[in-house]
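Predict structure. Chain length: 166.
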Amino acid sequence: MAKERANFNVFPLWKFLQDEFGFDESFHVFGPFLGASIRPRTIDPCTIEVFMPLVLNNTNYVGTHFGGSLYSMCDPWYMAILIRNLGPDYIVWDKSARIEFVRPGRGTVSAQFHVSPEEMAEIKEIVAKDRKTIRHYNTRVVDENNQVVALVEKEIYIRRKMGSTA
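Prediction complete.
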């Protein structure tokens, strides 16, 4: 049996949803986000902010934000920012993640994800020289009083696609 390989392109359904409705709106129909009332907002091409109110569908056994929903609201953003900015000549893949719950989440929580244009240029330089790189990103999930609810660490693998001249 031949080994099946991932093609590392944006999945056609996601591409369709983004082309038809826009990037932010495409996530409104994504199951985990729809159920947990998670809403992204693109600030600029390098920055995305995500909000999640406390509602029945994302409430845990003791009435605060469910940890899986807190992580879910943080999961795709660094990968999405990098894919959208680096372009189709690069493979961007989540390598690992960690979440630390600091205090119970109540009310609306938010998180902001940013990769600077300077870092994008640095990534391209490193990948041109070394063919791949691993980047680490940290995000704070905060409540309405800017109190930290959770800390999220993401490790992202980036390399050029085979045959790419980028």
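Summary: The helical segments are 12-21, 23-26, 31-36, 67-72, 77-86, 117-130.
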